[in-house]
Structures are given as C-alpha cells and as structure tokens.
Amino acid sequence: MDDVFSSHLIGQISKSSPTPLYHQLYSLLKARILDGTLALGLRLPPEEQLAELFKVSRITAQRAMDDLATEELVERRRGRGTHVIYQYSPKPVQAPLTGMLQEIESMARNSSAHILDYGMRVPPRAIREDLRLADGETALHLLRVRERDGMKFGHYNSWTAGVDMPADPAIFENTPRLSYFRQQGLEVSHVTQTLSAVSADASVAAALEVGEGSPLLSLTRRSYQKTGAGDEQILDFLEVLYNPAHFQYSMDLTLD
C-alpha cells in the first residue's frame, strides 16, 4: 500500500476533522477503488496493517472495510482476506445529441472533402456485425480526406447500412452525410464516440501528407437509429484519423 498512498494522503486522515475517522478512511479507500488504483482482484492488507498504516485503531479500520463490503466494492472471506471486487471501467461522457449533430454538420459545411474511394461494398467482419449485415451483404463505403484552408486535417473511413449509392457521389464533397441520411429516411437517435491515438500507416500518411508513423488522433463514431421494436440499431460506422497539427477535439460541458 506504500506505493498507492503517499504520506500526504495518509496525513489527510485527521482526528481534528469533524468527519469520523472510519468514514475518512472508507472514503479514501473507496476513491482509489473507483478510479482503478486498487484494481479488481487486489488483496487488501489485514485490518491490523491498515490501522498501523493510517494510524487509526483496528476498530476504525474494520468499520471502514465493513462499509466497503456493504457497497460490494470488496469481498471479505475468512482465511482468504479481503479482495477488491469492483471492476473499473471508464465512464462515458454524456452530452446532448442535438448539439453534437449540429457540430458535425457545421464541420462538414465549413470544410471540403476529397473522395478517395466509394462504392457498395462488403464491410470487414467486425463492422458487418456492428451493422447487423449478413455475410456478403453490402453497405455504402466512403473513404475521404477533409481539408480546410488548404490543410488536410482528417482521414474519414465510413460504412453506412440502409442507404443507396447516390447518382453522383461527388455530393459528399460538400454535403454533410447526415443531410443525405435524412433524405434517405434515416434519423440518428444515439451516437457513441471513442477517442484514442494511433500512428499513421503508409496509405493514411500519404492521404494526409504526413510522415509514416506520425501520431494521429483516432475517433470511432457509431451512429444508431431507433427500430420499430423500440430497440436501436447501428446505421453508420465511422473512423476518423485527425492530424493533431491541424485539428483539436474540444468539449465544453455544462451541468444541467
């Protein structure tokens, strides 16, 4: 526990605080369990060691552990000790969908797209499963590079189910895909996004005019629509690779 709790943190357990010592210790341990510092399956020290580490009584340490067990954050078994049973996972940020869709369309209208490839094609298996397509079934595939003021900032790879190929694919050079979806009778009801970092492979590096292996910001977006059964189904899978030299992804969230 010495590599988890610094002397500064340990010093926050104070007898001069109006909060009972057991609750101070419980809160400190709980915070480290919820943020994943004390990981799933980790065996916690016996109460005697906790009491010694935090300079509290064994009864105080026992009560703190009892409260953690009551909340099903730890499990206590005779002869096996106390183990963390909480599985940490990052919590997604929730934001109003309307504002996000407006932002997406605004970005599309204020930049231009160069179409590298398009067609009704069979997606990779993982994407096909996301879109609930049968083997051999096709989806609209678009491969584009977006630029603004002469700077190529994003490499867009999308697969969309339930739409037809437009008569003139050049429509996607200036028209937001969301606008085309609505024309095809598709309405987005839910969006999930995942951000990560990747390095540019040879084809993406050439498209964005960066060096192979350059760091890129990766955004994977899955857009859903409601079905007649009250369920939701993914209608669009999009992976965007951004050049961080020309693009920043910012969020401004307020508490309603």
Describe this protein's structure.
This protein has 256 residues and is of the alpha+beta class. It has 2 domains: 7-84, Winged helix-like DNA-binding domain superfamily/Winged helix DNA-binding domain (Arc Repressor Mutant, subunit A), CATH 1.10.10; 97-242, Chorismate lyase (3-Layer(aba) Sandwich). The chain is 28% helix and 29% strand. A 6-stranded antiparallel beta sheet has the order 4-5-6-9-8-7. The chain has a 3-stranded antiparallel beta sheet with strand order 1-3-2. Strand 2 and strand 3 form a beta hairpin. Helix 2 crosses helix 4 and helix 3 packs across helix 4.
Keywords:
Arc Repressor Mutant, subunit A; 9 strands; Chorismate lyase; 256 residues; six-stranded antiparallel beta sheet; three-stranded antiparallel beta sheet; alpha+beta; single chain; 2 domains
Brief overview, please?
This protein has 256 residues and is α+β, with helices and mostly antiparallel strands. It has two domains: 78 residues, Winged helix-like DNA-binding domain superfamily/Winged helix DNA-binding domain (Arc Repressor Mutant, subunit A), CATH 1.10.10.10; 146 residues, Chorismate lyase-like (Chorismate lyase), CATH 3.40.1410. It has eight helices and nine strands.
